[in-house]
Each structure stands twice: as structure tokens, then as C-alpha cells.
Amino acid sequence: MERDPEYGVCRLVQEHFQSVLESSPHTTNCGAVVISTDEGDYETKLAVALAKHRSLCAMISIGGLSRGGMGVWSVAVEVAVHEDVVRSRGSNRQTTTWTALRFAEMVIATFHETRMSDAPFANITVDANALTLEQESPSLLYRVRLNAGLGANLVF
Fold this sequence. Notes:
Elements: H1 9-23, H2 25-30, E1 33-36, H3 42-51, E2 56-67, E3 73-83, H4 85-89, H5 100-111, E4 114-115, E5 123-135, E6 140-151
Parallel strand pairs: 1-2
Antiparallel strand pairs: 2-3, 3-6, 4-5, 5-6
């Protein structure tokens, strides 16, 4: 079921991550699909994306909103990179030379120490626990964690 996405500071950050990844030449070259957890039935979209000749899918979600030292707000962003290993590496004809690990590292390189060019002008950094292998089966899953620092004077 499709639903209207929510709007707010967290959604603006999520949309920024999605648009940057979708427009990246690396994403285009490897044929990855980028989806957001705020777009409705994302589990079905993930299954369909992996099944339809695509071996990589990046799913962007918001992990939380917190207020740290000196009143600075931060949005935790997670990019889950799924790879259908059987489809991407198991056949005689590989569908891509990109793996989930390589794509996850590209996500880190793309966003670390960057800044959103429009409101809420978040400063993006890599989390201390930046990259973890979450599962190996039925699809390979790496999770990339980033933070979008919003400053102390955030207006909701």
C-alpha cells in the first residue's frame, strides 16, 4: 500500500540521502536501486528490487533524532545495502562487479564530512560504528550508519 510520505526535519534528511544516492554515477553504473522506508511497503519493494535483475538495493531509514551536548540536534541515518549474492556472483555471467561491501564503502565516501546545501543544512559525518555486516542469508546485508548534525537552533 502506497501512502503519502511524512514531512519534517527527519524526512528532509532522508530525502537528501535518497536523492544524492539516486543521482550518483556509481549507483547508476552498478544498477542499484535506492528506496526509502518512508515510501510505504518497503519490504515488498526490497524483494521486488532484488528479484528483478538487480542484485543491489540500498534502503535508507531514520534511526532516530537526539539532542547531544550543548543542545545540538542529530539525526541518525542508516543505509542498509542488500545484495542477492546468488544472482550477482553465482552465475556464469555476473550482473555487476559491485558487491554490497563496495557499495557500502561508496556510501561512506559519498557522505562523510559533507553538508546539505539546503534546509536544514545538516553536517553529515560517519558514525563511530560506521559499517557492520548484519546478515549473510538469504541476502547479504551491510548497514552503514551516519549522523546528520543539525545545530542547536533547530526549528521544527
